[in-house]
Amino acid sequence: MRARLTSDLWVAAYLARLRLADIPVYVTAKGDATAGAVVVKVATLDGKARAFQRGYDLTADRPIWMVLAEGPETEVDAALTRQRKRDTDLWLIELEDRQGRTLLGEEGLE
After folding, report:
1. How far, in Å, CA of 26 to CA of 92, rounded?
2. Coil, strand, or helix at residue 34?
3. Averaged over 37-59, what is the pLDDT?
4. How many whole angstroms from its chain centre is CA 109?
5. How many CB atoms neighbour CB 63 within 10 A?
6. Of these four, 34, 47, 66, 104, which has the most CB atoms within 10 Å of its CB?
7. Which of 68, 67, 60 is nearest to 86 (CA)?
8. Measured in whole angstroms, how far is the alpha carbon of residue 41 from the centre of its chain?
9. Mean pLDDT across the chain, nearest whole number?
10. How many CB atoms are closer than 10 A to CB 30?
11. Cβ contacts of 43 within 8 Å, gap of 6 or more
12. What are phi and psi of 35, to 5 degrees?
């Protein structure tokens, strides 16, 4: 069984990793500190964006980051606004990176 980090601790560690990689990051909605879900949006600065949410791969028996929304940034933002209305405990983290890097696949963040 894996130990679970609180949401605020995971977010703090993630922000530190992004800053070390020189990826601009903003927390646009702060959710529940203990167990709030986290959504990560990356804007590629060409009018497009992709948003990721945590999911679970039953076949591999491990957590994964899944695409929640992608396409024109305005449409991704609209989807995130709807998501936030349904879940007020949700954390929204926004990145800006032309290459679309999120670091979510790195050890400790996956």
Report:
1. 9
2. coil
3. 94
4. 10
5. 12
6. 104
7. 68
8. 6
9. 92
10. 15
11. 49, 73, 94, 95, 96, 97
12. -135, 20
Q: Which of 106, 101, 85 is nearest to 41 (CA)?
A: 101
Question: How many other C-beta atoms lie within 10 A of the C-beta of residue 42?
Answer: 26
Distance, in Å, from the CA atom of 45 to the CA atom of 100, rounded to the nearest integer, reads 9
Burial letters for 81-104: b for 16+ Cβ neighbours within 10 Å, e otherwise? eebbeeeeebbbbbbebeeeebbb
Tokens matching residue 26: 């903003």
Amino acid identity at 50: R
Residue 1 pLDDT exceeds 70: no
* Residue 104 per-residue DSSP state: T
What pLDDT is stored for residue 3 in this prediction? 60
- The CATH fold assigned to 7-96 is hypothetical protein tt1805 (3.40.1530)
How many residues are listed for the chain in this entry?
110
The residue written with tokens 């990145």 in the block is 95
Kindly provide the residue ranges of all beta strands, DSSP E only, lying in 36-90, ordered along the sequence. Answer: 38-43, 48-57, 62-72
